[in-house]
Amino acid sequence: MPRLTSIPLAPAPAGNAVNAEPGQPSARVKGQVLPAERFALRVGPSPIDGLGVFAAEAIPAKRKIGELRGEAISVREARKRAKGRERIHIVEVSETRAVDATESKDALRHINHSCAANAKLRINQGRVEFYALRDIEPGEELSCDYGESHHEGRLSCRCGAANCVGRL
């Protein structure tokens, strides 16, 4: 696996939508940072917890929604930073590397956990990517199953799903 040294933080465009051309992949230009999101998303108050990320347009099943970007750090540093935080925006991408999206402006840093998630988190060559598990309607909150988390079972799950496991 290539060593991850940094993931650039993409500046958010003006307006409520986070990407300029919703649903359309950008043409890659050498040196250009692609938008973190491939669909229009908005951030707002969540019935699950704090802020959440919501679809601003329909997202078809199995499509890549976007990536979580942030500072590349060691797992040791990630665990140190996570201690005592109520909200954690850190994902371990390998046994030695993690991404801390605490300072990121990208909408996907606000994706909440749900035991009945509509998106899946995948680690792909050091990148944290999100894919739609099913069709997602405009206005619907995006969620994924965090699996093992830095909360280590100490945080009550608030997803409200019928199959809720109760703790993160």
N→C terminal distance: 28 Å
Class of secondary structure makeup: mainly beta
Number of continuous helical runs? 1
Sheet of most strands: 3 strands, antiparallel
Mean pLDDT: 80
CATH classification, class level of the domain at 41-144 = Mainly Beta
How do the helices and strands follow one another from N- to C-terminus? EEEEHEEEEEE
Share in helix:
under 10%
The gross shape turns out to be globular
Strand order of the largest sheet: 3-9-8
The number of strands is 10
List low-confidence stretches.
1-28
β content, as a range?
25-35%
CATH architecture of the domain at 41-144, by name, is: Beta Complex
What name does CATH use for the topology of the domain at 41-144?
A: Beta-clip-like
| Rg calc | 15 Å
CATH superfamily of the domain at 41-144: SET domain
